[in-house]
Design a protein that fits this description.
The complex is a heterotrimer.
Chain A: H1 2-19, H2 24-31, H3 35-42, H4 49-59, H5 63-74, H6 77-87, E1 92-96, H7 105-109, E2 115-118, E3 121-124, H8 134-138, E4 144-148
Chain B: E1 5-9, E2 12-18, E3 23-29, H1 38-42, E4 48-50, H2 53-59, E5 66-68, H3 78-82, E6 88-92, E7 95-96, E8 109-112, H4 122-126, E9 132-137, H5 141-144, E10 147-151, H6 161-165, E11 171-173, E12 189-191, H7 201-205, E13 211-215, H8 217-220, H9 227-230, E14 233-238, H10 248-252, E15 258-261, E16 264-270, H11 280-284, E17 290-291, E18 306-307, H12 317-321, E19 327-334, H13 342-349
Antiparallel strand pairs in B: 1-2, 2-3, 3-6, 4-5, 6-7, 8-15, 9-14, 10-13, 11-12, 16-19, 17-18
Chain C: E1 3-5, H1 15-19, H2 21-26, H3 28-31, E2 43-46, E3 49-52, H4 63-67, E4 73-75
Antiparallel strand pairs in C: 1-4, 2-3
Classes of the chains: A mainly alpha, B alpha+beta, C alpha+beta.
């Protein structure tokens, strides 16, 4: 069952990537799949309809659940990042207040590898931020403010 | 999610966190700690608690001077930056943050100039932390006093007067009980020329004029003496771990060879009325700033506790120790390297009182 | 860490009572060896042995332990 769901997620990601202009060969490389498998997926083959349905439900979960479930299913940080980034329906703004003490807990916690420290302050790359808010939960000084960007971009 | 790991070994506490990105490590050395409590004040998550300093320092209690809660500690490194005696060291990927420019560090230093130092050892004696070692090589005595001396062993009557009178203990006489086979009291007498200073006391006191001696040093005067022969050579070493930059070496040095820069500027205020002369402050002070003064006459009370701020580093250990709140330590300036982090700057400035 | 007494070891000499700086700031008469009894001080000699009264005022300076000749009062 889990591997069917994984297939579903990879399918949805592949579809999005193609829509974004990547070639099938690119998609195969990014998702570490055979190019032929990618082709089959896009033509609706080798997937039970249930997989796609379940995967779609998962992409509609709140960001934290989508992220943590995907990570648990794949157990692969890199692929999880790509799937989340590609299938995320929303984009986020991140602000780190001056109260940040540069302890690095957020950077260690972020599964999307979206946070680095610069001059003792956390910097969040909103390209990769998925809005799961786990960094904010762990911040000892409450310095992280993440908000959804208004649609229309 | 990575958790902190704490290890406590004898007098050392170690807290570390290892993630795929980096390794952060905080080390606390108890013997360096002076109990100032600055780490407790600056910690942004209240993970540090000051222990019972008086009981530890005065009564030998076997407890750590601070405790660190590894569940609260976020390994930010602020305590290490603020510690005035470097009892807390913080490394990121094996590199000390005091060597990382982004992290602010206190500006403090103690050094002894090799050129000016005359190796008198006053600083070594005065240092309250035994942090200074002076090694010195003295000139050879035989190059500074010269002369000739000879004891005529035939004339010598082995009275031992010269041996007793010699101020340098340079004369040694062999003593034995006479026998009928050997009816003498001494078989030999010798002068150790390494010790002899040609004072001629032996010659003057010998009752039978058995000693011939002359001193050449006076006729040498200072004209023929090679200045290289009078040089005292040596080296100085300050153990940076033990040094707290108190300034005793600077103040006591007779030739201004020691220079100390202090991290904190401030004021030490003792309320002599409230003070009950328990001596706790004197015992905990790492810099010998405080003492009980001797009265000039019986019954004459000047001050209960005397202080000299020349040696004070404004750490505040005395203020913490005082059981009746008779001491106030004000910090008016915190000298530290700049940092772009507003939170760190704010926290360091908050040490001002 | 708290203040402890062992009444069996205590000689009732009262040196700790006099030496305690908190006692002296609360009641100079008691610290001087005279004065009416008051339970406001940390400890007092009662019936020939030391007894703790207002133990929570103790700031753990350790002065009493330093002066006690028989290890009858200490911080632990």
């Amino acid at each position: 069952m889990p591997k069917h769901i994984v297939s579903g997620l990879k399918y949805l990601t592949a579809v999005e990537l193609i829509r974004d202009g990547f070639s099938q060969k690119d998609v195969a490389k990014i998702l570490e799949m055979d190019r032929s498998t990618v082709s089959h997926y896009l033509n609706g083959r080798n997937l039970s309809w249930n997989s796609i349905e379940v995967a779609e439900i998962i992409t509609n979960f709140c960001s934290k659940d989508f992220l943590t479930l995907t990570y648990a299913l794949l157990n692969d940080a890199e692929k999880t990042r790509i799937i989340i980034k590609t299938c995320s329906k929303k984009t986020y703004q991140a602000k780190v207040e001056d109260s940040c003490i540069g302890c690095g807990l957020c950077a260690d916690t972020c599964l999307m590898n979206a946070i680095i420290l610069d001059d003792l302050k956390a910097e969040i790359d909103t390209e990769w931020c998925c809005g799961c808010l786990m960094c904010g939960d762990v911040c000892p000084t409450n310095s992280i403010k993440i908000s959804e960007e208004e649609n229309g971009s | 999610m990575v958790a902190n790991v704490k290890e406590v070994n004898a007098k050392e506490i170690n807290v570390k966190r290892t993630s795929p990105e980096e390794k952060r490590e905080l080390t606390f050395k108890d013997e360096i700690c002076v109990g100032c409590g600055i780490c407790e004040k600056i910690c942004p998550v209240q993970a540090i608690e000051l222990g019972p300093i008086c009981a530890i320092v005065r009564n030998g209690a076997e407890e750590s001077k601070i405790s660190i809660d590894e569940d609260k500690c976020v390994l930010c490194g602020m305590c290490s930056s603020a510690c005035p005696v470097d009892a807390l060291e913080f490394d990121i990927d094996e590199k000390n943050i005091k060597e990382i420019e982004e992290y602010p560090k206190l500006i403090k230093n103690a050094e002894i100039s090799d050129e000016e130092c005359i190796y008198c050892k006053a600083c070594e004696t005065a240092c309250p932390r035994d942090a200074i070692t002076i090694a010195r090589v003295l000139p050879e005595r035989t190059k500074l006093v010269t002369g000739e001396i000879e004891i005529d062993k035939d004339t010598c009557i082995s009275c031992g007067v010269c041996e007793e009178m010699c101020p340098a203990d340079a004369i040694t006489m062999e003593h034995h009980e006479p026998t009928s086979a050997e009816p003498t009291v001494s078989s030999d007498i010798n002068v150790d020329k390494e010790k002899c200073v040609y004072c001629l006391i032996c010659k003057k006191s010998c009752p039978v004029d058995a000693i011939k001696a002359v001193c050449r040093s006076c006729s040498y005067g200072e004209y023929d003496l090679n200045p290289e022969d009078t040089e005292i050579k040596g080296s100085s070493f300050i153990d940076e771990e033990a040094c707290v930059d108190c300034g005793w070496c600077q103040e006591i040095c007779p030739v201004d060879a020691a220079k100390v820069e202090k991290a904190f500027e401030g004021e030490l205020i003792i309320d002599q009325e409230t003070c009950q002369t328990c001596g706790a402050c004197i015992d905990v002070c790492p810099c010998n700033v405080l003492s009980f003064p001797s009265p000039n006459a019986s019954g004459d009370i000047d001050e209960k506790v005397k202080s000299d701020e020349k040696y004070c580093i404004y750490c505040g250990a005395c203020e913490n120790a005082c059981p009746v709140e008779a001491i106030e330590v004000k910090r008016t300036d915190i000298r530290h390297t700049p940092t772009k982090s507003k939170s760190w700057d704010k926290k360091l400035e908050s040490l001002k009182t | 860490m708290e203040l402890k007494v062992n009444q069996d070891n205590c000689l009732g000499c009262g040196v700790c009572v006099v030496a305690c700086p908190v006692n002296a700031s609360i009641s100079p008469e008691v610290a001087g060896g005279h004065g009416s009894k008051t339970t406001e001080t940390i400890m007092m000699v009662e019936n020939g042995v030391i007894k703790l009264f207002s133990r929570d005022k103790c700031t753990k300076c350790g002065t009493c332990q330093l002066f006690c000749p028989t290890d009858a009062i200490w911080l632990e």
